[in-house]
Design a protein that fits this description.
Number of helices: 10
Structural class: mainly alpha
Distance between the termini: 41 Å
Number of domains: 2
Bound molecules: iron/sulfur cluster
CATH superfamily of the largest domain: Alpha-helical ferredoxin
CATH topology of the largest domain: Fumarate Reductase Iron-sulfur Protein, Chain B, domain 2
Helix content: 40-55%
Number of strands: 0
Order of helices and strands: HHHHHHHHHH
Length: 184
C-alpha cells in the first residue's frame, strides 16, 4: 500500500524528546472512555481487521502507540483520529478489551477543543445547531414517510436543543474550529 503524503502525521522513529508529553496517556486514560488505553499491548490485532485500514493508510494500533508514546500534538492535529468508522471490529478482536472507539472519541474531543476538529464534523454540529438535524428536512423524506405509512416528522425542540449544546460547550468548540475568514 502506498504511504500517506500527510507529513503532519510523522509517526516514525526515532521519536524526538521535544515531541513527547509523558502525561498525555494518563490524561486520556483519566477521561470517560479512555480507561482501557493503558491495557494496550500494541499487538496489532485491531489494525489487522480494520476495514478502513484495508483501503487507506490508517492503523488504530499506530494511533494508540503514539498516544502511549506521548506524541500529543502529533496525535491531536492528525487526520488519523477522524478516520475511524466506529464499526467495532477492533474491539471484537482486542484481547485486552481496549474500547478503541471510546478512546478515539476522547481524542476527538481533545482535538476539537484545540481547534483540530475535522471540517465535516464541525459542519454537522452547525447543522444541528441551526436545524436540529444533521441534514436539512426535505419534501422527499416527507413524501417517502407518507408512502410508507409513517407519521410526519416532528420538528425538534430547537431552543432546548441549543440550550443543551451551549451547556455542553459545543458553541465554544464550533467557534474554536472556525477557520480564519469564516463567519457564522
Ligand atoms: S488489539 Fe487491543 S491490545 Fe492489540 S493493539 Fe489493538 S487495542 Fe492494543
Ligand atoms: S472501529 Fe474504527 S478503528 Fe476499529 S476496526 Fe472499525 S474503523 Fe477500524
Amino acid at each position: 500500500m502506498e504511504q500517506s503524503e500527510d507529513k503532519s502525521y510523522r509517526g516514525d522513529f526515532p521519536v524526538r524528546d521535544q515531541d513527547v508529553q509523558a502525561s498525555f496517556k494518563y490524561d486520556v486514560a483519566s477521561m470517560v472512555g479512555g480507561e482501557g488505553l493503558l491495557r494496550c499491548l500494541k499487538c496489532g490485532a485491531c489494525s489487522g481487521g480494520c476495514p478502513v485500514g484495508s483501503v487507506i493508510d490508517y492503523r488504530p494500533r499506530k494511533v494508540l502507540g503514539n498516544v502511549l508514546l506521548g506524541l500529543k500534538d502529533e496525535v491531536l492535529s492528525s487526520d488519523q483520529i477522524w478516520l475511524c468508522a466506529a464499526c467495532f471490529t477492533c474491539e471484537e478482536r482486542c484481547v485486552q478489551q481496549v474500547a478503541f472507539t471510546d478512546v478515539v472519541t476522547v481524542l476527538r474531543n481533545m482535538a476539537s477543543k484545540e481547534g483540530h476538529a475535522a471540517p465535516g464534523y464541525v459542519k454537522m454540529a452547525e447543522m444541528v445547531m441551526q436545524n436540529g438535524r444533521v441534514s436539512a428536512r426535505t419534501g422527499v423524506v416527507d413524501k417517502m414517510r407518507e408512502q410508507l405509512g409513517l407519521p410526519p416528522l416532528q420538528d425538534p425542540a430547537i431552543d432546548q436543543l441549543r440550550g443543551i449544546m451551549k451547556a455542553a460547550g459545543l458553541y465554544d468548540v464550533i467557534a474554536a474550529n472556525k477557520k480564519e475568514g469564516e463567519s457564522d
